[in-house]
Amino acid sequence: MELRHLRYFLVVAEEGQFTRAASRLAMQQPPLSQQIRLLEEEIGFELFERLPRGVVLTPAGKAFAQDAQRIIDGLQQSVERAARIARGELGTILIGLTSSASFHPLTTEAIREFRRLHPDVGIDLVELNAAEINERLAGGLVHVAFLRKPVELPPGLSFEVLEEEPMVVALPEDHPTLAGKQGRQADIALRALADEPFILVRRPGAPGMYADILTVCREAGFSPNVVREVPRMLSGIKLVSTGIGIALVPASMQRYNQAGVVYRRLKKPHVLTAPLTLSFPTTQQNGAASRFVEFVLGQFRQRPK
């Protein structure tokens, strides 16, 4: 039995006549009559009672027509649902985030606005470091990601910088440079941090930013004294609050209101910036993820300051 046989049968049942049904199906009446007869032979019972001026369904034919219509309707719904998935109007996106990227307002704004425009697309979030993001993107375990600086640029993955933001110094609130009203407001020269204990995110997890911090410190005339390496930037800020050391973090991390921590800007010319990068497979199999990437790049890439 083929699907077309069910369609032929339902049209004949609706029209009550082979001639009108054949016209509606854009075919000749004899082949249509033959197809219905073959269907009846296959299932083992008559679907129609043949009358001088048409046909009517037999009791078995009526029951068969109900089930056949459900099959056709279900198939059409499946096709429409699959088409929506292919167009990116339906489905689920798994988005990877580094901890610092999750604090950037652009990240939350992009996800929130996309959800408003595409309410039928589900979004799941997972926090990872930059190294894990590359691995999971390549393995298809994450569809798209927001991170700072990629570990590397492997083939098959695309990286688009959405925005550059300045980095600031996170200091314990009792740090000597914060003494007095002016001390809490003035920018800090990077060279003034030469003797400070630094807290950095571990090199394997964020080698790009780790290297940038070392480079800018050397340009300022010193090598930082790294006393702690942490798995996440939030962990570093928590350690700053205990007085163990200082950290250089993206300015948007100030939104994490950790008690005991004060943030200060760096003086020029040694201004350090942190990119916010969108990463995704160059060939994307997930239609909803492709639509998300297109939306983010169209709305947020190279936004005016």
From TrEMBL:
SUPFAM superfamilies for the chain: Periplasmic binding protein-like II, Winged helix' DNA-binding domain
Keyword entries, A-Z: DNA-binding, Transcription, Transcription regulation
Family annotation (Gene3D superfamilies): Periplasmic binding protein-like II (3.40.190.10), Winged helix-like DNA-binding domain superfamily/Winged helix DNA-binding domain (1.10.10.10)
CDD domains for the chain: PBP2_BudR (cd08451)
Superkingdom to which the source organism belongs: Bacteria
Domain HTH lysR-type: 1-58
PROSITE patterns from the UniProt entry: HTH_LYSR (PS50931)
InterPro entries hit by this protein: BudR_PBP2, LysR_HTH_N, LysR_subst-bd, WH-like_DNA-bd_sf, WH_DNA-bd_sf
GO CC annotation: protein-DNA complex
GO molecular function ontology, one term from the record: DNA binding
Pfam families, sorted: HTH_1 (PF00126), LysR_substrate (PF03466)
Entry similarity comment: Belongs to the LysR transcriptional regulatory family.
Protein name: LysR family transcriptional regulator
Naturally occurring in which organism (per UniProt): Trinickia dinghuensis
